[in-house]
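Changelog excerpt

This revision adds worked examples to the README so contributors can see how folded entries look when concatenated. The first example is reproduced verbatim below.
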Amino acid sequence: MSSPIHTFMPRIEKKGDTGVTSSPIALQSSHNPTQSLPSVCNLFPKAFPNDYKSIEILAGDGNSPGSIRFITYGPSSELVKTSKEKIESVDLEKRSFTYSIMDGDMLKYYKSFTGTITVTPKDGGSLVKWSGEFVKTGHEIEDPHVIKDFAVKNFKEIDEHLLKQ
């Protein structure tokens, strides 16, 4: 049985080829992903093999700023097959972390892409806000709706997975 998860209206603010997209998601679990970044590397490919083939830590401990992860996505990711991400900041007190895309398929579409995840405790669960700041490679490139939708889907899946544990 699927948990009642609410996705609030996503937002996109744009100025030319630069923009920010965000989507808050209310989850039932109270999991704080900022405290378990290294476990994501093991959990996601095992729990969600259709989304993630592998996540490798290339530099650092996988938990602190400067750490670099290489992600190979599974068959459900049609747009992006690989990405190399750098953890830019981790704030355990504010329950947030920020990462940037350094290499991979996404840079075909976006000159730069930075994602931020913030988790706020709410009513025994969590309110997760994912936001992506982007610069397109050209005017013809669409806003990153597919990437936002993939992130929202992942949060819903991890929530359901954690509730079963």
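The second example, added in the same revision:
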Amino acid sequence: MRVVSYNARGLRLGQSASDKARRIVIDQLFDSADILCIQETLLAKQDLERLNSVHNDFYGAGESTTDLSLGLIDFIKKWVCSRHRTSVSVRRGSMFYKSRRSLQNHLEFIYRFSQGLRMRQVDLIEDAVAASSRTLTKMSSTLRKVCIRAIHKLRTKGKMKVGGRHRFVMLDESKFTGRNQYNRGRMGPVWRRNKKWVFGILEISRDTRRPILKIVRNRSTDQLLPIIHRHVRRGSSIVTDEWRAYRRALSEEGYDHHTVCHKRNFVDPGSRCHTQNLERAWQTFKCDVWRHRGNRTTSLLKEHLRVIEWEYWLGRCHRYGVLGRLLHDIRKFNVHECA
């Protein structure tokens, strides 16, 4: 008699094609074992009866570690006060409070969020990160709040300033609302809203790129100049196109202003100045926003722009990378401050 023990790490008991594909290893063990002991920590009590349907030649029986009445595991950890006989969840005050997902699911989603969430929600659901797209949306929204809170603290300290010696600052504007080619496709509420411009400031140095992205009503001098004063140091070298809002205003305010005429050249033949770094960055920023459907509303677009700023200002500068900075900000995150 051959007895085999196997740690399933996400046992699928369904009969769909995707569930059967994830049970290939277990099906092979059934062919070579007389008794198969499967370890699955998160197997719910109501799923125990479905163990009999995994294989026709085997009888399934087991105990659920998520059943608190058995005493095998205290699935929801709590702080208990012996004096007042009260208990409080250890997740209270953190981003995991009132969440039914396990910490393992949260950590896996945090890792994928730090990598850019390049997988579809369907793939994340199949990998058992979450049970529905609604849960994934809530988890994404919570992590965006973490990033927004961190970048807001940096801005309130007055550290989000660009420019200076040996640094060039590029200015440009772009629309993130999208455009239907040849007037085809649906024109729903997403595109009927007030279309606004995104004003971009990009600092170029030898090793870093630091963007500042602001939603503005229009591209006039009255809208753009206060933002430049707030975030660009006086005396900095600024490169722009020949948009009329920049022509005299920047030089009169004490900036070293260089221009390039995009109607004639992408790189100015005399000064060799260009805005190609920011033009290329627009494509990267828009791909991130459109992939996450972040341009549906103005408030949602603003959140995604803050996350982009967080990635370049804080995430990539951390010694442990974007994931290390994200875990650092999660540790300092307080639900009550951001409610």
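Reviewer comment on example two: The first helix runs from residue 17 to 21. The mean pLDDT is 81.
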